[in-house]
Task: inverse folding
């Protein structure tokens, strides 16, 4: 009976392991899609994601968006944009934007307990790198491509809400991820005829990058609007006396947006407890440190699993955009990879700490079982079984927006009305787009080279 | 089995023998509000066994329930009358639309402009132009529904003659050009004249959207107005509010 009890303990752990054994890290769910993107086959990548989502077509949504599927839909939205399937990309971004917002708000103490006891991926997804603020920015590109200013304004307003949240609640006024959004939202309001709102957004954008191509637009907007700021004044004074050709009435504006590479995704990493203790020496609680030191002293199977950043993909590409063969000067609007890595560095210690806590918990569970069984051989087996099961269950949380472009560059040029050809390229991906520019009109052309 | 893990943040009243609880030498679980309790009496053999079983069983239960949720199913509104009452998102749903429209149209019913129309014996021509979305939500389809409801209400009032939407779209295409046949609020007077309408009904929805760490609140402000085309004067205007929140 006694033996049965101990074995039952290990048995239950085994059953639990069966339930969770299939749940590899998120990076395993997306490895095929990433490999396809690396090979320059975005169509294939979408097929893999559709398969993971359990849907048959690019337009289908999974039955359940409440869990990690939201991230896959987000990845699919980015790839759809790279395939110029803008309407479908809009849908994916909007659905995942809401679902991720919901997950973010729903992240509660229960999730934290799961993260500290079972596995880093036990809780609901919580974007720790603030990359989600780019959802509205990338979706604005979809609306600009489809010439839907009303939809683009909705995304700009949503971005505004997140921008306030990042600045006021997260106290991160210098988050450069917001700069690209400022450039695009400014363009949206400029073309909607709202000069002050456009200037306000451009002012935000100028805080992060030079955007030399905006000087003509800012001068024209300032003559119609009343918004003033030191940055706007500087742009106006720097371009005083410069005659641009043609004027807004005589030509049309073309903006070119090129995203390339992919931000570093997360990978599971195993390090010895001794090394982990060194890494978080200043932050670990004394009780945990003592327990972890004892474990380190044992020197047996004392590894911790935690998520780390993989290398960035394709961030060193050179983006280019031409119109009728003439190069459009491109400005790097945002280095997303740098921002994601910087955010990750801020929380990496906490992630390692929670992994150490899980290790200590496993050890405590084993010790408890051994003690309850009076340290008999069977109790030892049950204890080892329980610890091994919990170790197997400990999946580092590798969930992230993996298809987010590593960098985004933008350019803007005014051209005479009529038919033109825009060619955007980066990382061996090229998009050639014939466009019709109306007098006083505008056109947006984008390329996402996610390889 | 008698041992209970509570997440109440305090000690359970059943915690009578702390010394007999499974000993977690690194008591980090307690940090999160877990309290381990034991039953007061039991045979030592059975107690040892249940202690051994307790930890993996509880961990297993928590791990399993963490991944479990109810299955999805399709339901019919006519069979579940309360189906419309739950808020599903921060967007506008049928209940919000009805509430906002009811408030505004009840006000229009008793407005002076309605009396003027009634006196006209239903001959006054009114166009209903799209409501503009100035919110943080993609509610274009809901605005289309509002437009349709308002149009229906006007037609059923028998106080005016409402211009058909197809005719309006033709005029918009004529004025804006077929390549960009999108309603432009700046040209409503021109549309109205071409349609032979004396008034037009329109509106807009704006939001105040705020986000904190654990909540998002969207406050909707729904404005409706009747404008006299000849003079550009606002003959009636009213507003209604709806708030949605996720937390």
Result:
């Amino acid at each position: 009976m006694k033996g049965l009890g101990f074995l039952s303990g290990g048995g239950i752990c085994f059953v639990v392991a069966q339930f969770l054994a299939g749940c590899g890290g998120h990076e395993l769910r997306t490895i095929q899609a990433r490999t396809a993107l690396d090979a320059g086959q975005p169509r294939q990548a979408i097929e893999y994601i559709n398969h993971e989502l359990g849907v048959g077509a690019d337009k289908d949504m999974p039955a359940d968006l409440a869990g990690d599927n939201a991230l896959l839909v987000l990845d699919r939205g980015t790839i759809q944009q790279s395939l110029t399937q803008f309407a479908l990309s809009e849908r994916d971004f909007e659905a995942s934007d809401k679902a991720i917002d919901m997950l973010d708000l729903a992240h509660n103490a229960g999730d934290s307990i799961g993260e500290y006891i079972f596995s880093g991926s036990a809780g609901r997804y919580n974007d720790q790198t603030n990359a989600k603020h780019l959802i509205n920015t990338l979706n604005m590109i979809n609306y600009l491509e489809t010439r839907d200013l009303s939809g683009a304004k909705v995304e700009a307003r949503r971005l505004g809400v997140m921008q306030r949240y990042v600045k006021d609640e997260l106290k991160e006024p210098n988050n450069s991820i917001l700069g690209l959004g400022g450039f695009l939202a400014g363009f949206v309001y400029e073309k909607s005829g709202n000069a002050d709102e456009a200037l306000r957004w451009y002012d935000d954008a100028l805080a992060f990058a030079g955007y030399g191509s905006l000087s003509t637009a800012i001068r024209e907007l300032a003559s119609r609007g009343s918004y003033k700021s030191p940055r706007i004044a500087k742009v106006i004074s720097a371009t005083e006396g410069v005659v641009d050709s043609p004027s807004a009435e005589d030509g049309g504006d073309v903006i070119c947006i090129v995203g390339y590479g992919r931000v570093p995704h997360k990978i599971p990493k195993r390090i010895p407890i001794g090394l982990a203790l060194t890494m978080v020496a200043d932050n670990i609680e004394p009780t945990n440190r003592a327990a972890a030191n004892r474990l380190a002293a044992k020197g047996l199977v004392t590894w911790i699993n935690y998520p780390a950043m993989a290398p960035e993909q394709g961030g060193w590409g050179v983006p280019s955009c031409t119109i009728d063969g003439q190069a459009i000067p491109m400005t790097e609007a945002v280095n997303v990879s740098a921002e994601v890595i910087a955010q990750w560095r801020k929380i990496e210690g906490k992630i390692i700490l929670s992994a150490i806590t899980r290790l200590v918990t496993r050890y405590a569970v084993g010790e408890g079982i051994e003690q309850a069984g009076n340290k008999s051989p069977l109790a030892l087996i049950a204890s080892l079984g329980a610890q091994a099961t919990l170790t197997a269950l400990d999946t580092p949380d590798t969930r992230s927006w993996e298809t987010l472009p590593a960098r985004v560059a933008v350019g803007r040029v005014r051209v005479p009305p009529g038919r033109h050809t825009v060619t955007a390229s980066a990382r061996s991906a090229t998009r050639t787009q014939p466009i019709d520019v109306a007098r006083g009109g505008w056109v947006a052309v984008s390329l996402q080279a996610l390889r | 089995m008698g041992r209970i893990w509570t997440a109440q943040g305090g000690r359970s009243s059943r915690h009578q023998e702390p010394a007999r609880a499974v000993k977690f030498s690194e008591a980090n679980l307690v940090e999160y509000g877990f309290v381990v309790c034991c039953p007061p009496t039991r045979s030592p053999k059975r107690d040892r066994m249940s202690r051994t079983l307790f930890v993996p069983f509880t961990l297993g239960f928590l791990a399993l329930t963490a991944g479990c949720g109810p299955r999805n199913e399709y339901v019919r509104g006519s069979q579940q009358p309360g189906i419309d009452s739950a808020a599903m998102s921060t967007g506008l749903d049928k209940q919000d639309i009805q509430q906002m429209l009811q408030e505004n149209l009840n006000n229009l019913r008793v407005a002076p402009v309605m009396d003027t129309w009634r006196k006209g014996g239903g001959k006054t021509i009114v166009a209903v132009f799209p409501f503009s979305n100035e919110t943080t939500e993609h509610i274009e389809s809901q605005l289309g529904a509002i437009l349709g409801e308002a149009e229906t209400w006007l037609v059923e009032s028998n106080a005016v003659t409402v211009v058909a939407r197809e005719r309006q779209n033709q005029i918009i295409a004529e004025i804006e050009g077929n390549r960009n046949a999108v309603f432009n609020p700046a040209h409503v007077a021109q549309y109205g004249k071409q349609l032979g309408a004396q008034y037009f009904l329109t509106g807009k929805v704006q939001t105040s959207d705020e986000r904190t760490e654990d909540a998002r609140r969207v406050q909707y402000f729904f404005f409706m107005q009747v404008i006299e085309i000849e003079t550009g004067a606002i003959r009636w205007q009213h507003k209604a509010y709806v708030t949605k929140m996720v937390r």
User: Anything to note?
Assistant: Chain A touches chain B through 66 residues (CB under 8 Å). Residues 16-23 of chain A have pLDDT under 50 and may be disordered.
